Amino acid sequence: MVKAPSWIFEPSDLDNIEDIELYRPGGFHPVHISDTLDSDRYQVVHKLGYGGFSTVWLCRDRHLHQYVAIKILTADESNRPLNREFDMLQQLEQLGVSSNHPGKEYVPLLTRHFQIDGPNGSHRCLVLRAAGPSISTLVQGRSVKGGWMGGDLARGLALQVTQGLAYLHLCGIGHGGSNVLIDITETEFHTWPQNQVYEIFGKPVTNPMRYISHAQSGDSASAPSYVVEPIDFSAVDTKYLDPRIQIIDLGQSFYLDTPPTEGVGTPIDYRAPELIFNEDPSSHSDVWALGCLIFEIRTGQTLFEAYFGNKNEVLTQMVNTLGNLPEPWWSAWDERREDVDKDVNYYRGD
């Protein structure tokens, strides 16, 4: 008999938040706005994002008088013998010293790292350059005034992404994802006081953490008193964004000479056919994702969109756009039943 999951918290009223059930030993570190980290050097100002293994916060560096992004890993992820993202960032830091490749400025730079101890364990914290929204967020959230994006700007962003990916490959690293951010206007940003950050990006939207039962609240130190939604960059005036990109999220990255056999977490919309059919990731699958992203940059539309997260949706759109899949993938597409064939013929006008 399968044991039902033991939920600790009531569902939050907010949608765009991390899995609150991971506020437990081994999980997320509880963070509140205005908290300080690393002997009071960094003060938490807002939230930038989250993932399955981390939360990311906009913080003020009181020593250097600038804003940074601090990625706080879960305790379990922090204490693995090998943390993929941390290892990749360190390698890029070492290789970047002697490189003048133009793509170097578009990959993440680990400026510092430190550990913090909390109620859920010891957490590794990565200090990175603060950046704005992902290209996908801009596509999904709104169109830039006057159309999607001017040709010169779109071409410039596409070139930067291509150069950044080429640099990762030169360093022997595959990205394995599609997460590319647009920078915040750097010359002004670091001079903003906290109230101006809130005026431009909006005040943090919070919601109380509520325990299902009083008995479960005994370990309340494991969770923050409230959760925070990330900045909604779709509502931010584009004049505060800089036409420069930053490839992030190396948690899905891999060494090109030893690709992971368990695959990578490339979103289905950007996944190359070989990844859909459970083959190893490679530089080629990265280039496929790059092509999908460039299409998105130039048109404001997703090339192969999975409305329901179904691989058959994506494969059908690929066939509609590019023709039948080459072998052995065409024959390996077990779910290509009559209804899928009809969809393909319908999309292609057959």
Automatic annotation (TrEMBL):
Protein name: non-specific serine/threonine protein kinase
Domain of life of the source: Eukaryota
Every Protein kinase domain range: 42-350
Pfam families referenced in this protein's UniProt entry, alphabetically: Pkinase (PF00069)
Originating organism: Galerina marginata (strain CBS 339.88)
Binding site for ATP: 71
PROSITE patterns registered for this protein in UniProt: PROTEIN_KINASE_ATP, PROTEIN_KINASE_DOM
Enzyme class: transferase
A single GO molecular function term of this UniProt record: ATP binding
Keyword Heme: no
InterPro entries membership: Kinase-like_dom_sf (IPR011009), Prot_kinase_dom (IPR000719), Protein_kinase_ATP_BS (IPR017441), SRPK (IPR051334)
One GO biological process term: spliceosomal complex assembly
